[in-house]
Amino acid sequence: MRTLTDLANVLIGCRVVTRARWERAARIGRGDPTMTLDALTNDPPAWFTPSAADTSDIPHGLTDYQRDAIDLWLNGDDTPLERQLAINQFILLEKLGAGGQGDVYRSRQLNPPRFVAVKTLRRDTESDRARFELEARAMMKVQHPGIARFYLYERVRDAANKPTDEYLIAMEFADGTDLHRLIRWSGPVPWSFAVKWAIDLLGGLAIIHQNGFIHRDVKPANVIALGPPPEPGTAPGATAAKLLDFGAVRKVEQRGPTDANRRIFVGTREYAPPEQWEERIYPASDLYALGGTLFYAITGRPPFEIEGRDAIAFMKAHMRAPIPDASEHNLEVPKELSRLLQRMLAKRPDARGSADELLAEFRQLLPSDGSVPMTIAQPVQTVKPSQPASPPLPYRSARTAEVESRGKLDRALDSVLSGLERVFLPDRLRASPGHEPPINERLVALLRRPFVLFLLLAMVVLLVVWAML
After folding, report:
1. Among 151, 171, 177, 354, which residue's Cβ finds the most Cβ atoms within 10 Å?
2. What pTM, to 2 d.p., does this model score?
3. CA–CA distance from 219 to each of 81, 223, 441 (Å)?
4. Residue 403 pLDDT > 60, yes or no?
């Protein structure tokens, strides 16, 4: 049974609280864990120093994420609490997301004191680790307002300060809302804001491409909108957009042979360009994905919508389906913008242009006086036509055959997991549709729920009894 003394050792050792703050909270709690944690939560955190000018926004001493981790640990969860609260010199404040490569946290760096986004990285081989380290250090030299800046890359150390097999990158924390959530909550944004954000993001992509990198996973969830809400009375120039998550970044000359050998699709189905489905990437691949992201921002839907997110159907749509016209889904979108997005969504990479070329064209669409109409865009309500049969693909690679063979199994597993997650996982722990982590991580999340483990054990017992009858 874990005690308050055990908890004190962890929290003080992780520098989440000071000894003086713990002793004060312990006196208030009088041996009661809940009252003690309440006292720690009500006090500001140890790293917080209020300014003389403004003390109105004082953070809680324990965040909801930290409090949940502590409660689970006190109730017998086997996950080491130290690893959930701190990594190296970073105090973990909030879990922002999880993916196949690692987890992302909003964190407080102790030296220098600042908020950062920390992403943990799991690398299977030494060559993978060495390659990522080289690219991470190179990305630290890439600076642009439209890119979340890399601060450092280092090896994670355990409680005894010994290096582990895990690595982390610390990046600039962009305090805003990602486009995926923004559009789901508020609907399509006025087209002028999308033009302003395109200018920010194309400027960042131009710098990335000039330095020899390709992002490979531009999508709404990886774009943060900063500033006031995009609504009437707000000028587009008062807002900004920033590109995040460089976990899939590659050098231009590395066209994916390693990923091809491991049969791993990199990207997001709704936004991956035709060539990326065949493990071929170019700087123009990012432009296609950005075009789809902007399409989503002004229409409220991706360029291609596929029921059940079937991989084969998405691949065929990106490769062969007609390029959609944004103005047909949102009457407020000017034809000039729609044509520009169609160019970015061209099937052939060489037909999309470069980030610099597109940047110049988007700048022409945004008047310097900010006089673009601020009407809130409403998507056009249309009857969804039946999809015509896709014409045969021009070629069929080993990758295409592999995706087709796995399609039915993937859909079945996804349906089963989605049902279990709706029943057993609270909303805050479920990924948004289209942004689910890999299947193995979803299984682990489910198995960490005590009731799921109980049901699984009960099923095993029933099977054993049935087999013995």
Report:
1. 171
2. 0.70
3. 33, 7, 21
4. no
